[in-house]
Amino acid sequence: MTVLENEAAVRTGSAPRSVRPTAARRATLTGLALALTATVVWSGSFVATRALHDSVPPVQAVFWRWVIALLAVAPMTLPQVWRQRALVRRHFRFLLVASLLGVSLYNTLVHQAGLTTTAGTMGMIMAASPTLMVLFGRFGRGGERIGARRAAGMLVATAGVLTLLGKGDPTALFRLDLASGGLWMLAAMACFAGYSALVRHKPAELTGPVFLCVTFLIGTLLLAPAYAVSLTVQGGFALGVDTVGPLLYVGIFSSAVAFFTWNKAIALVGAARAGAVYYLQPVCVALLSLLLLDEHTGPVQILCMVLILGGVVLAAGVPRTAAR
Question: How many whole angstroms separate alpha carbon 149 and alpha carbon 97?
């Protein structure tokens, strides 16, 4: 049997007993690796977003981010979009909601938060999004089962995130500036969690590249009026290495590459399990801060990383071959 035939047989239950665990394990490992790739790339986007905070207005940064992303994916996806245009029309409302949550709102809120919030704080707040992913996935259509092991992993990882957010001092949580950047990030977290849960129910007949291209296009069009207002009120921005470089990163890598790998990960392992890997976000941001900003990690941060990594291992749980 070919790989595709094996996977199809596993899904239908007609595969030999020896094939099922191997195919399921391979799909899970692939999904977790893709989720990790997206998480690492998105961690870098918080640094890039922070780098743009005093040079490019948020709406303009997000608009050009998606224009760049569209230019990156269009040559490979437009022929497929044309062939599936009838499906796009049929599922337009689903695509519209996905575009609004994952493209227009989420990224605008993140860039708005970047005006007053550090990259590390943004990454730590976003690390709480898997909790909402699990809840949205659990109570949505065809809800995913959480299970005791996954719930335990989520609790351990959440403890690590909260401790990291409070820098070892529980009272520090109450001093978080929720009136500005923190509040924007909480809203962004909710949008991203909703998008991730929604992607789980993407119509099977819509291919991944078509879904990406169409949502990128719709999201950009939704941003166009706000971009025009921002350009009129705030003026444009100067082109230079310090603006073009971060925009290329968030447009090509954080948008085209990361969204494709994230959506594929959700298709393979579900939003809840992919969301568990997303708990690595603060760890990745901390490492990037050390490498790029020379911000050193102390004992409390190391403890939090251990908790987060342990929680991810528990919650992501690769199927064991023993479960035959």
Answer: 32
Closest CA to 282 of 62, 46, 51: 46
Least confident of 2-6, 265-269, 294-298: 2-6
**What is the separation of C-alpha 47 from the centre of its chain, rounded to a whole number of angstroms?**
15
Tokens of 245: 């470089």
How far apart are the two ends of the chain, measured CA to CA in Å? 20
Return d(Cα 195, Cα 266) in angstroms, integer: 11
Kindly give the residue spans of alpha helices, DSSP state H, lying in the chain: 3-12, 19-51, 58-83, 85-90, 92-99, 106-113, 119-126, 129-139, 148-166, 181-199, 208-234, 241-248, 258-277, 281-293, 299-316
Structure-model confidence comparison of residues 203 and 294, the more confident one: 203
| 269 contact partners, CB below 8 Å, separation of at least 6 | 27, 28, 31, 32, 35, 316
**Inter-residue contact 46 to 122 (CB < 8 Å):** yes
Name the nearest CA neighbour of 25 among 200, 268, 309.
268
The distance of Cα 69 from the centroid of its chain, to the nearest Å, equals: 15
- Looking at residue 56, what DSSP letter applies? S
Query: Which is nearest to 188 in space by CA: 120, 101, 267?
Result: 101
> What is the spatial distance between Cα 271 and Cα 158, in angstroms, rounded to a whole number?
17
Q: Among 49, 62, 46, 47, which Cα is nearest to 230's? A: 62
What is the pTM for the complete model shown? 0.72
